[in-house]
Amino acid sequence: MWIYKVKQNPSTKHETVSLCALFGIMGAAISQLWTPPIIQVGFVGLPSTGKTTIIHKLSQGQKPTLPLTDTVNTTRFFQGSQEYCIFDYSGNEKLRAIWRKLLFRMQAIVFVIDSTDRANKEETREALWQVLREEMLDPQPVLILANKQDNPKALSVLELIAYLEIEKDLEKTRKCRIIATSSITGEGLVEGLEWMRQIVRTNPSY
């Protein structure tokens, strides 16, 4: 095996450093301008949390792109200039066991919570932890939608954070956020989608 050594000219050292810095700046600028052609998002949550209604609201009533199944519905729509492909996965207990395999290929994850459902506290927390603390899903940003905030009996976001014991998950370096939403009024939905888009936009590797 032949090994060649190139002797660097001291006079070009600063030029090389300058070029590296320039390419670094250009790369950062391109990253900021880059917009993914389509963002694939996995929607999960327990049954009756309002996932399908939220997607219906965001897509302005557009019907699922693929035929309805017991496992997943797929809907594609534009929000501004950004196109999304939403995978609405069933929240039944049997499918929850394979959520990680289904969500692994997504660029972002949305977990929908029924803010009025106190009866299923343990089940909701267990399902949410299954997503937040799964190492296989660690790179993806997770958006938690505290739905049904239009209901007077709904728990606030702060109450839900304590209720579900997710303070540490929100403080981790991984991108994670919880937003108060209503699938009826549309509160927080566009805001949440835009936050998610910005995270994916600045991290093309997702």
UniProtKB/TrEMBL annotation:
UniProt keyword Magnesium, yes or no: yes
Key words of the record: GTP-binding, Magnesium, Metal-binding, Nucleotide-binding
InterPro entries: P-loop_NTPase, Small_GTPase_ARF, Small_GTPase_ARF/SAR
Pfam families per record: Arf
Sequence positions that bind Mg(2+): T52, T69
Source species of the chain: Fusarium poae
GO molecular function, one term: GTP binding
Name of the protein in its database record: ADP-ribosylation factor
Binding positions (GTP): G45, L46, P47, S48, T49, G50, K51, T52, G91, N147, K148, Q149, D150
